Amino acid sequence: MSASQGLNDCSRGYATQLDNQDTLRHLRKEFIIPTKADLKSKTLANSASTSENDDQPCIYFCGNSLGLQPRRTSERIISHLTSWAKKGVYGHFTQHEDSNLPPYLHVDDFAAKLMAPLVGALPKEVALMQTLTANLHLMMASFYRPTEDKYKIILEGKAFPSDHYAVESQIRHHGFDPKEAMILIEPESSGSPTISESHILSIIEKHASSTALILLPGVQYYTGQYLDIERITSYAHNLGLTVGWDLAHAVGNVPLQLHGWNVDFAVWCNYKYIDSGPGVIGGLFVHSRHGEVDLSARQDGGAGFRPRLSGWWGGDKDTRFKMDSDFVPIPGAPGFQLSNPSVLDLTAVIASLEVFALTSMAAIREKSIALTSYLEDLLLLAPAAAEFDEKCLPYQIITPSNIAERGAQLSLLLKPGLLEGVMKALEDAGVVVDERRPNVIRVAPAPLYNTFTEVWEFVHIFKVACLKAQSGR
Amino acid sequence: MSASQGLNDCSRGYATQLDNQDTLRHLRKEFIIPTKADLKSKTLANSASTSENDDQPCIYFCGNSLGLQPRRTSERIISHLTSWAKKGVYGHFTQHEDSNLPPYLHVDDFAAKLMAPLVGALPKEVALMQTLTANLHLMMASFYRPTEDKYKIILEGKAFPSDHYAVESQIRHHGFDPKEAMILIEPESSGSPTISESHILSIIEKHASSTALILLPGVQYYTGQYLDIERITSYAHNLGLTVGWDLAHAVGNVPLQLHGWNVDFAVWCNYKYIDSGPGVIGGLFVHSRHGEVDLSARQDGGAGFRPRLSGWWGGDKDTRFKMDSDFVPIPGAPGFQLSNPSVLDLTAVIASLEVFALTSMAAIREKSIALTSYLEDLLLLAPAAAEFDEKCLPYQIITPSNIAERGAQLSLLLKPGLLEGVMKALEDAGVVVDERRPNVIRVAPAPLYNTFTEVWEFVHIFKVACLKAQSGR
Ligand SMILES: Cc1ncc(COP(=O)(O)O)c(C=O)c1O
Ligand SMILES: Cc1ncc(COP(=O)(O)O)c(C=O)c1O
Fold first, then answer.
1. In 3-state terms, what secondary structure has residue A396?
2. SS3 B462
3. Is residue B4 classed exposed, middle or buried when 0-12, 13-18 and 19+ CB atoms within 10 A define those classes?
4. Which of A21, B259, B296, B298 is most buried, by the most CB atoms less than 10 A from its CB?
5. Minimum mean pLDDT among A445-459, B79-93, B181-195: which range?
6. Do A389 and A473 contact (CB within 8 A), yes or no?
7. Residue whose C-alpha is closest to residue A28's, from A68, A74, A78
8. How many angstroms does the Cα of residue A269 sit away from the middle of ligand 2?
9. Which pLDDT belongs to residue B2?
């Protein structure tokens, strides 16, 4: 189903109307939207702005790369800094009456509990720790246990480079040859960079008997394609295979049901749609069935839990400070924790998750579908596209038009030679999007803080930018 | 050599005199010292304090666990938050004229350069990333490459639990049996928990032919013993063995010369003597000789670099955003990076390192030796100890008395039954130290912010606390 139907009204007034109907519009004020002057300023201090226009908020459609800052983030962080300043090491155990932050010792559980509904997990299936790529390695240490017969990892040919490197190095780590053991899924046709699910399933089937792990993106970073996680996971399970998911672009973007979909494990970062700041602590999901700890099995000489690379913070909380050398993991995802986590980072994540807790992923998704469909409509439909040669737009949307197969982001493939000029014009106009050279820009209206009017304005500015770049001006 | 000689003057006045002579005393004001009221307060907001005494700074001797907060930390963090709020994703590339923080893209190098002198490394030998235990795993993935003949890891029997678990799980990961492959160094005599270097060397020699890795602490967390890193490393190298160092309690405490000592690798955290906050991002050192990247070797079919678990942030900066799938690491420690790092955390580390840059590790060590020796003297020497039965102190210092074999910390073994009462009395008096059940308290005057007068006061309060606990009051 495409939402690109029946946009009759291409006026700015209609965008205003959509904003007025938006049930999440009150959430925009939870965020600090940079002004156009802010983006241009060479200082952090407020500069006397040069023009009235510069005082206007910019159009920030780059939440797929680095989300905007919730207003409450700095408040929460100052609370945390005050706690550390006033309590020192006692902060590990102190609950302050006038702070909603927990003692440091429990901040991991506290944050995981807030995160769980966003990914459709039980609280014990989520851990916030390390960073995406590190978590991917830690998960592979547990879930990629190759044997002579089953050693391959299936992933996309155009996986995010960090995932590619991580997989390649894991394969080498176990003494296999990436040339043989890395099965790269490439698009079927050279005309489209998206990958059909049937193609993915066919490759999984083809290599099933020699495959040890599948790694796929929930939402593909380049094309914005949203894969059917449940279907692919279930297909792989039927073949006895394990699937891990990179949810960098999915978490906070689309509603996930990781527990219900029976996902084995997943990893993500929290600096994109979660809005917790550059490089902030990441997250992981381990399905409850993989996180079990069975102490009776230990008495029989078994390990009693899945193999993993361990650290003290994954150890049972009651015995953690006894400092003995017998590792008994916390059941669930926290049992994969290694270290006492950054309270500063977790505080930023908690602040963001408080904003998410003001609504639901279902409501966010509903707005997101409307917002991105509106963007698609304005980009594609006449008369909105009438500025351009009929049927000859200087750009093409490579993201699937089926709303079930995408999240917030649309990726626009520009005609060769336009990217630099278009990006320059957008930047000059105070529009922030993300480029992927040579010819793609990724445009992601974030449902928590973006508006339909911004979409309308973006499309206007973008088309003028294309025309300018085309005419070489 | 013991410094415990010739303390003739046990008066408070003498402590004041030592403070007046302290060339680092101006650095104390760089830190926020909690007041006694702060420690007791149930709120973050300033409470109307109950007594004048409560307005006094507490005595914080717990920098070995969680260091105090530098005053500039919150300033720097607010700068960073402002940059993120005003620039969004442009913050990755923007240098603000009124901020001494670099663009996010270079914050890793910037912080590593500030850290390098503290550990005696070339800037390219340091990376700030992940957490201690994660870094230990990542280093072991590269440096622990067991074979059928050489597979053992030598470590202390009383290693910090996270190190023990990490090593154990790595051994299992490679299919070996920890019972056989973990060689635990235990103290020679049951009378003392410290381990002589000759004993360590003898165990290394005994297992040399079957050992793949040695892991040791620079400063032992429990006893405070400071090992001769250079000597042990060189001894192991002569036997063809690799040694990794856990420097959690050494960094920022004792001057290190990791490059000059030819150390293979080291890992540490930055929340103890570095003062960067609970769970903050960790650090690692890889000697330049292990970090080389030789592209010509690649053309000959070799890898061209040490094996490692990889991620995009370890890839050459110039090609990182080209998003291709050919991993070429940055030469040195940054080539072991996985992910874009937390700018929030690195900002906290940078703030701390700015304070360290106001002096030198040599000056810090000089004060530290004086401070800790003074603590030792007051604890042990008559007439200071005269409150107790002659020759029958209710505590014993288990940290080596040789100043070359210890850092800031003294570990006091209390007579059985005293710990709880002593800790309670110390807490009531606004003294923060760290307990290790059943009978040890660790006392660490931090040379950057502690004073001789605090040491004097601590000893007075501590002795009264012991007397009280002894008499069961
Ligand atoms: C000696 C030592 N090693 C390792 C660790 C574990 O550190 P992390 O939780 O940062 O991995 C600690 C923590 O206090 C420590 O003291
Ligand atoms: C899809 C995807 N995977 C992995 C990563 C790497 O994330 P990190 O640097 O946090 O490990 C990113 C970063 O943008 C990403 O977009």
1. strand
2. helix
3. middle
4. B259
5. B181-195
6. no
7. A68
8. 7
9. 38
Q: Alpha carbon A382 to chain centroid distance? A: 33
Q: Which residues have CB under 8 Å from B19's CB, separation 6+?
A: B25, B451, B452, B453
CA dist A82 and B32 (Å) reads 10
Whether residue A131 and residue B173 make contact (CB cut-off 8 A), yes or no, is no
* The two three-digit tokens of residue B300, written as one number: 């000959």
- The answer, for B260 touching chain A at a CB cutoff of 8 Å, is no
Residues composing chain A: 473
Strand, coil or helix: B443:
strand
Closest to B89 measured CA to CA, from A201, A273, A66: A66
Decide if A406 contacts A1 (C-beta within 8 A).
no
Structure token digits, residue A447 = 């449902």
| B85–A65 CB contact, under 8 Å | no
State how far the Cα of A96 lies from the Cα of A1, in Å rounded to an integer. 51
The answer, for B117 touching chain A at a CB cutoff of 8 Å, is no
Cβ–ligand 1 distance for B345 under 6 Å, the answer no
What is the band of B239 on the pLDDT scale with cuts at 50, 70, 90?
very high
Whole-model pTM: value is 0.96
Residue B166 has pLDDT above 60, yes or no: yes
* Partner B contacted by A133 (CB < 8 A): yes
Q: Mind listing the pLDDT tens digit for each residue in A300-342?
A: 667 899 999 999 999 988 776 665 678 999 999 999 999 999 9
**CA geometry: angle A208, A210, A213, nearest 5 deg:** 70
Output the DSSP codes for A183-248: EEE--SSTT-S---HHHHHHHHHHHGGGEEEEEEESB-TTT-BB--HHHHHHHHHHTT--EEEE-T
Reduced to 3 DSSP states, what percent helix, strand and coil does chain A have, rounded to the nearest 5? 45, 15, 45
Residues of chain A with pLDDT > 90: what percent? 86
Average pLDDT over residues B151-170: 97
Higher per-residue pLDDT: B202 or B1: B202
Strand partners, A183: A154
- What lies within 8 Å, CB to CB, of A105 at 6+ separation is A92, A93, A317
